[in-house]
Each structure stands twice: as structure tokens, then as C-alpha cells.
Amino acid sequence: MSLDETAIKVLDVYAAEAIPDAALVAIEAMLGSGDLFRYTAAKDAPVALLEAEFAALLGAKYALAVASCSAALFLSLKALDLPRGARVLIPAFTFAAVPSAVVHADCLPVLVEVGSNYRVDMADFAAKLDDSIAAVLISHMRGHTSDMDAIMALCDARGIPVIEDAAHSLGTTWKGQNIGTIGKIGCFSFQSYKLVNAGEGGILITDDPELAARCIIMSGAYEENWKKHPGLQNSFGHWQNRLPLYNMRMANLSAAVIRPQLPEIAGRVTKGRANHDHVADALNTCAWLDVPPTLPGEARAPDSIQFNLVGDWSDDQARAFQAGARTRGVAVQIFGLSEGNARAFWNWQFLGDMPDQPLTRAMLMRACDVRLPTRLSQGDLDFIAGALVQAATDVMAQPA
Q: Cα-flanking dihedrals φ and ψ of residue 134, to 5°?
């Protein structure tokens, strides 16, 4: 395939997925009525229906739709009723919104190392999970699941609650259990680059009625709007007027966009996994590229691929690979070499002086990221894989 302008446009992997026709019909009717606020209707508002459907889909008792996954993380931390300044263990490889949510909840992030397979380094996790840690927030970053058996065993032994940041993991399972249902609370994203696209939006799930009630009230269920959330009346009655209102509600328009996409999740997971594995098989034939395998028991739902530059790469060679892939029509992000990248922990300057994480730093300097939206054809996937392999081969064939 030639590297002409047409080919590059075909592989615009950053274009958002189209909004389903069913959502367009619902939005038009909603705009005509002006019924956009989730609490206007006595029952069966689009947001309320989304919560019931999403909880059933994941096998959780309660769900709360909010403005973003960041809002879900923040409310989850506040619902745990942690003391001001509580130390919360988070992976050093995550998006800046995660430590931001911890700071917003008046807590202190404590970073734990992440290895070359993009998963929490369990030796460092065990070493840092001491009596000073009040909670753990595990990011399944880019859908890569850490060893949840080991994490939960260590946390349960100390009575430390676990929140799952499952923004990238809708449809992923760990030994048959849905990611997001393993810890106390699971938080998901509906931002444009996720499996379900609403532009913005998030949702949290839990089986704990007290945590659900606290999150619902703090999200903005003021006065007696909490009565429109079923099954929690006793808990609501206790917490009404005792908690602050942060007004992080989801609007009915977002729910109308999301609901028609829920039945498509299973198909998107199947297609995304096939796309990922097809490209991974091709990349792993190259001596200079490596896609780490999944952990035993992990069934991922990827819409992107991450791989490492292996061997003796300099920073200049890594940048040359990035540029070479771009000239071939494929956009590659190297986490540690992309200016101001929000996934590189040293760019989280709002945290102040933090200890270095050398294992994570080394990984980020050679870890590459390419989106693989499910709409891509096999021809597109072959084009991407071929461009990446050729770019790496060309760079490493040059004298150092």
C-alpha cells in the first residue's frame, strides 16, 4: 500500500466512533422536550435506566452514572471516609487524572512501580503496602490487569479497601470475573477514546449499599432526589444532609448516547481482542519489538496496543522510530518521550517532590502505544503492523 494522503486518512485512529442511530432519535426527542436533567422525571429517566442496565451487565448491585471517570474515582475515595492526608497507593503508570482524583479527595498519592509488562510490580507493591496506607487505587492502565489475586490477598489481610480504575477495561475479565467488580468500587469511562463513546461521562459500580448511598448523595442527589435511586432508602435516610454535594451528575443526553451502545460491547470486545492479537503476532516477529503477554487468567478487551522497543535503543533512535512510523501513516506515542505526556509520572508536578520510580521510568522511555479502534479492517491492521516493523528495522539497520 502506498503512503499517500488517502492511506493516512483511512488510518485516522483518533476519530471518534459514530453515534448510533438509536441515540440520535432519542436525543432529538429529548431536545424537543427539554428534559435533560436526570432528576426531572419521577422514574425511568435515561440516566436511571443506564444505571440499571450497566449494573446488570457487569453483575453489580448498584451503579451511579456521573460526569466522568475522574468524578467516579473522586466520589469513591470520598465515600470511603478517609481522613485528610490519607495515603493512597496507586500505580506509577496511569493517567494524570488518577493522582489528581486522590489529591482532590484530600489524600496523598503513593506511587508503586510498574514493570515492563505494564502491570504493578508485586514486590514493590508488597513493600509499600504498610500500615500507613489507607486505600489502594489500582489502574488497569490501557486495559492491562495486574495480579488481582495477589493484590486482593495483601489488601484483605490488612483490611485495606481497593478501588478499581477500570476506565480502559470495560469487558475485561480476571479468571471469569468482570474487572471493576473485584474491589470495593469499580470506575469506568465513556470518554471518546474508550470502548463506549459518549464524548465524556463515567460510571461507578459497587455491591456495598453504604458506599453507593454516599456516592449518590455526594454526586448531587440533593433534597429527596435520592428517592429516585431504588433499593437504598435506609442508607439514604441516614446520610441525607450529612454529606457535601459535589454536583457531578450525568445528564440525560449522555445516557441517551451510551445506552444503545451497551448491546454492542460484547461484539466490540471480540473484535478488539482479535485486532490486537493480529497486530501483536506481527510485531513479535520483529527482533526490535515486543508485545508482553497477558497474565494467566486475564482476558483483555483492548482497543489499542502497547509494545516495547527491545534491545539497545537510544532516545534518538526511539524518536527516529516514532518519526519513521509517522511518515508511513501510523501515529505512535512513546509514553516517556512524548512532550508533557500525562501518563509519565514525572509530569505530575502538582504532586511536588516525589521519589523516583526507576523501573517505571525505564519502561515508559521505551513503551509504545497505538490505537486500534474496532472499526479497522484487516488490511488496516496489516498496514499498521507493517509500518511499525519497517520503521523499527530501518532505524536499527543504521549505524549507531
A: -95, -25
Four-way CATH pick for 5-12+265-397: 3.90.1150.10, 3.40.50.300, 3.40.930.10, 3.40.1550.10: 3.90.1150.10
Return phi, psi of residue 126, to 5°. Answer: -65, -35
9: helix, strand or coil: helix
- Going across the sheet that includes 304-309, the strands are 289-290, 304-309, 367-371, 333-334
According to DSSP, residue 283 is labeled: H
Give the span between the Cα atoms of 229 and 145, in whole angstroms: 31
Burial letters for 246-271: b for 16+ Cβ neighbours within 10 Å, e otherwise?
Answer: bebbbbbbbbbbbbbbeeebeebbeb
319-332 per-position pLDDT tens digit:
999 999 999 999 99
- DSSP letters along 70-96, please? HHHHHHHHHHTTPPTT-EEEEESSS-T
Sketch the domain layout of the chain as residue ranges. 5-12+265-397, 21-263
Indicate the SS3 state at residue 312: coil
Secondary structure of residue 308 in the 3-state scheme? strand
Query: pLDDT of 277-308, one tens digit each?
Result: 999 999 999 999 999 999 999 999 999 999 99
